[in-house]
C-alpha cells in the first residue's frame, strides 16, 4: 500500500548501507547528503525497523534544504540487521551497540540522537552511559513517544502482562507453533487497532499494512522475547538524570503506553528538557502526526545552545502551603497575525509571568490551538489543543485533566469546565456588549445570533463566571460594574492591561513632530470613530491628519471618508507594531471617542512614548488617563476639535507629554503579572 507521505520522500537522496558495529552486521539507511552539516540518528521502537520513522524524516525541512542528514539503522535482531550473538537483547546490549554504531560511522559529538518508544530507552541509556560502558557523545537528544514509566505499571499494565505471557509462550512453544503465533496477522491487527487513534480510514488501513509488513521482520523468537522483556521492564527515567544534553520530549495526550502525567514527571528528571505534547494521537506519533513531530524537531534543531535553560531546582517535596505549582496558561486567543486587545493582553502577561514564575519554582505550560501562536509567546513547554471557538470547547476540561495542572488561567470567561479537576481563574474584560449588542463582524451568523441572545440578560454571564474559583478583570471600572450587577460570588482581582515598554534611549519631547492624530481600535459602532472623522472638518484646515491604524472594510472606509475632507484620513489597514510606534512617536495625540471600554490599551501605548491622549470623557478613560489625558464630549465633533487644539498649545503639550510618561508608568506587564501570579498561588493553595 503506498505511503500517504510518499510524495514527501520523492526526490530525496536515500541509500541503503551496511556496517559492522559492536560485532553486529548492521543495516542502515541514509537520507540526504553526506555533506550536510548536521546528522540526526534515528532509533526505532520494538518490533519495528527504520521504515517506521520515515514519515517523520519525510517532513523534516532540513532534508530538503541540505542542512540535515538522517541516519536510520535497523536495531540488531530486527529488520535487515543481524541479531546479537552470545549476549541478550537487553537495554545495555542495545546501548553499547548504538555507541559502537555511531563510532563506526564517525558521527562524532555533534550528532543528534532520536529514539521512538523502545528506541527512546535505548537512546537514553546510550547517552547516559554506565560503569564499563562509555556514553554516546551527542549534542542533543530527542525522544518521541518516550517510555516514561515501566509499561507494566502504565495505563495498560494488565495488557502488558498478558503480552509478556504471549511472547513467553511464543518462545517456549515448539517452533512450528511458536513462530506462527508471534507472526500472527490476527494478533498484529489487534495490536494495531488498539494503538491507532486516527479516525481516517485510509490512514488506519495504511498503519495496519505497515504493521503487517514490518512487525514480523525479526531474526528469531528469542530475540523478540528478550527485547520485549527489556522494553517493559525499564524506562527512560532510569537514565534521565545522567543526561546533560538538551532534550526534547515529544509526547501524545492519548498514549496508552505512558500516561501524560508520567511524561511531565520525566521532564523534571532531565537537566535540560522540554516537552511538546501532540493532541489527538497515541503511541503512533510517527505514523499519525509526523508533520507535527517534525515541526517540533525542526524548531529544536534550529535553536542555539543558549536557548536551553536548566530545569528548576525547586523542592518538589515542599509542603502544600508553598510547594511549586503546575500552572497552565490558556494562550489560544493569541492572534497569529496582528494582535487584538485580548491577544496582546495574553502575550504581554505570559511573557512577564515566565521569569516571575520560574523564580518562585513554578512550572508554566502554554495551551495553544495553533503552533504559529508560539512566535508571540515566551519559550515554554506547550500543548496544542482545540480552537476555543470549536463546538468541543465545553469539553476542553476533560482534555486538560490529562495534563494534571494545579491551576489554569484563561484570558476569557468562556473556557469549558465540564468535568474539570483543577482550580480555574477566568477573565472578564468588559461589559460593553450589554449596552452595545452588535457582535464583531467576523463572527458567523449562528454565533452572531447567540451573541445577541447571550447579552440580553445577566444570568448567562453569572453562570460562566461562577464556574471559576476566581475572576480577573482589567480595570477597577469593570470590577465595579461586575459588583454592581452581582455577576459573580467569586473573588474579583484587577490585573491591569499595559503596553510594551518604550524603546531604550527614548528622549522626552517638548513638542510634537507632526499634527498627526492616531486612532488604534476596531470600527464597531460603540467605538464612535465617526465623531473623530467628523471633527476633521474643522481640524484639517489647520494641518491635522487622522491616522486609522486598524484593518478596515471597504464599506467602513467609504463611510468615514465621506465625513472628512479629502486627504485628512490616513488608512493604514492593519499597521505593524513598528509602523504603529513610529506614527505615535511623531504624533500630536492618540485619540479615541469610544463610548465604552474595558480598559483602553491605546491610551497607554501612546502615553508610554510621551504622546498625550485626547479621549472621550468616560469613567474608564479617567481611570487610565488620569490628569495626563485631555477629555472631550464624545457626541460632539466640535468638542473633539477643541480638545485637540488645547493640547496642541506648546506649553500644554509639553506638560501633558511629561505627565503621560508618569501616568503610563502605573501600568506594566511586570506589575500585572505579579498580581496574577499572587492570585494563582492563593487560588491553587486556598
TrEMBL record:
Matching CDD domains: GT4_MtfB-like
Pfam annotation, one family: Glyco_transf_4
Domain named AB hydrolase-1: residues: 40-293
InterPro entries per UniProt: AB_hydrolase_1, AB_hydrolase_fold, Epox_hydrolase-like, Glyco_trans_4-like_N
Single Gene Ontology MF annotation: glycosyltransferase activity
Keywords: Glycosyltransferase, Transferase
The keyword Transcription regulation belongs to this UniProt entry's keyword annotation: no
Keyword Glycosyltransferase: yes
Annotated GO biological process: lipopolysaccharide biosynthetic process
Segments forming domain Glycosyltransferase subfamily 4-like N-terminal: 350-501
Name of the protein in question: Glycosyltransferase involved in cell wall biosynthesis
Organism of origin: Frondihabitans australicus
